[in-house]
């Protein structure tokens, strides 16, 4: 079997890094993958980058593994318009979305090992009527359809220095206080603790939970949420058997000695979690969605339109995402896949 890689925005660096990852497949020791996307876009991008790319169009995911060593397998989802590097076109949004849908469908049917997504530009998809803030929420909706229940997705950023997840995800900062609840923190903490055990082999995960306000509220002088929302969540997590500490002041929980005291940090909003993650490990960073009935990883960067077709887009983060997805698939099935050291 192989991992399903959705092509992302065809005008972004998704095609560049997919080609780069395939070219480095041997030394990077990554599991086999196939791209779900437009073969013409990949051929054009390879020509622009001046690299020789053997590419094979496949009709079914099952064919990917056999071809991967010799050619980049592509399950075609064709764009409506030619993709121009750096110039996103909303007419191609439906192909971008369809590639994600197919990756999820094939993983849920057991035809692929997991979903790896190349970056999308959210605003381009919103212009085409996409109703979700990002992949994370779209994948949760697809999972909910499959499971017939609501699904809370957890956006875990992983690099060699840190694992960290925000409780609230893609929402405006002014809405964070209204949407942050004790229940959301507890559910997020439970999902992280469960999946650190199951997918990352951490037998007794230790979580560090941040506060919301400066200095975790300074005993209420700088905000009530730390004491009224976060502290009860930490207590509930402990009562549920999860090793959790907090609320911790967010500004002092990411230095090396602090990081050594926990396995994952739980933060209250997007930038509180993603700034330390992307600062400590941008090019080896992976965005993994937990809480889903399938594996999903992604590079931690975006579409970087100005780099598309330039040769300057590094495939490292995608390689890390493919490697982590391969390791998760191996942990799930008990078999060894490439990248599982
Ligand atoms: N997984 C995803 O789908 C995902 C993740 C983050 C951002 N985005 C989207 O991407 C778009 C652009 O976002 P942004 O500009 O904030 O972030 P970005 O990650 O695209 O770019 C940030 C900076 O990092 C550089 N960079 C990014 N990837 C690189 C790579 N592989 N090699 C070398 N340099 C790289 C860029 O040139 C830029 O200077 C937005 O629409 C955002 O929503 C998508
Ligand atoms: N918040 C993520 C980041 O900045 O890396 C990014 O927007 C990707 O999110 P999705 O995987 O939900 O598209």
Q: Bound small molecules, which ones?
A: nicotinamide-adenine-dinucleotide, 4-hydroxy-L-threonine-5-monophosphate
End-to-end C-alpha gap: 18 Å
Architecture (CATH level 2) name of the largest domain: 3-Layer(aba) Sandwich
| Percent range of helical residues | 25-40%
GO molecular function, one term: 4-hydroxythreonine-4-phosphate dehydrogenase activity
Main location: cytoplasm
Binding site for substrate: 135-136, 278, 287, 296
Catalytic activity: 4-(phosphooxy)-L-threonine + NAD(+) = 3-amino-2-oxopropyl phosphate + CO2 + NADH
Provide the fold topology.
Blueprint: E1 3-6, H1 14-23, H2 25-28, E2 33-37, H3 39-49, E3 55-57, H4 64-68, E4 72-76, H5 93-108, E5 115-117, H6 122-127, H7 135-147, E6 154-158, E7 163-166, H8 176-179, H9 182-200, E8 206-210, H10 225-239, E9 243-248, H11 256-259, E10 264-267, H12 270-280, E11 286-290, E12 296-299, H13 316-333
Parallel strand pairs: 1-2, 1-5, 2-4, 3-4, 5-12, 7-10, 8-9, 8-10
Antiparallel strand pairs: 6-7, 6-11, 11-12
The structure holds nicotinamide-adenine-dinucleotide and 4-hydroxy-L-threonine-5-monophosphate (4TP).
Residues 134-136, 274, 287, 298, 300 line the site of 4-hydroxy-L-threonine-5-monophosphate.
Subunit structure: Homodimer.
EC number: 1.1.1.262
Function: Catalyzes the NAD(P)-dependent oxidation of 4-(phosphooxy)-L-threonine (HTP) into 2-amino-3-oxo-4-(phosphooxy)butyric acid which spontaneously decarboxylates to form 3-amino-2-oxopropyl phosphate (AHAP).
């Amino acid at each position: 079997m192989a991992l399903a890689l959705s092509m992302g925005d065809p005008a972004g660096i998704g095609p560049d890094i997919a080609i780069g990852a395939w070219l480095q497949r041997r030394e990077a020791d990554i599991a086999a993958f196939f791209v779900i996307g437009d073969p013409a876009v990949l051929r054009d991008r390879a020509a622009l980058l001046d690299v020789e790319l053997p590419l094979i169009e496949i009709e079914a995911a099952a064919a990917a593994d056999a071809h991967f060593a010799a050619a980049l397998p592509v399950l075609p989802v064709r764009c409506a318009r030619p993709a121009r590097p750096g110039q996103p076109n909303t007419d191609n949004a439906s192909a971008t979305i369809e590639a994600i849908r197919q990756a999820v469908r094939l993983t849920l049917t057991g035809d692929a090992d997991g979903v790896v997504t190349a970056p999308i530009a959210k605003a381009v998809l919103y212009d085409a009527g996409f109703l979700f803030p990002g992949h994370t929420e779209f994948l949760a909706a697809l999972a909910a359809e499959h499971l017939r229940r609501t699904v809370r997705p957890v956006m875990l950023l992983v690099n060699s220095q840190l694992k960290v997840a925000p409780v609230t995800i893609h929402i405006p900062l002014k809405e964070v206080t209204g949407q942050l609840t004790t229940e959301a923190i507890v559910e997020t903490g439970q999902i992280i603790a469960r999946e650190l055990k199951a997918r990352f082999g951490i037998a007794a995960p230790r979580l560090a939970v941040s506060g919301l306000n400066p200095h975790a509220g300074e005993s209420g002088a700088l905000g009530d949420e730390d004491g009224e929302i976060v502290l009860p969540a930490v207590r509930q997590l402990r009562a549920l058997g999860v090793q959790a500490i907090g609320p911790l002041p967010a500004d002092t929980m990411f230095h090396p000695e602090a990081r050594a005291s926990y396995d994952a940090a739980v933060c209250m909003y997007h930038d509180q979690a993603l700034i330390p993650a992307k600062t400590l490990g941008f090019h080896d960073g992976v965005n993994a969605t937990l809480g889903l009935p399938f594996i999903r990883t992604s590079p931690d960067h975006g579409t970087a339109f100005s780099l598309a077709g330039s040769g300057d887009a590094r495939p490292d983060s995608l390689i890390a995402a493919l490697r982590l997805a391969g390791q998760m698939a191996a942990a799930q099935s008990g078999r060894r896949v490439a990248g599982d050291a």
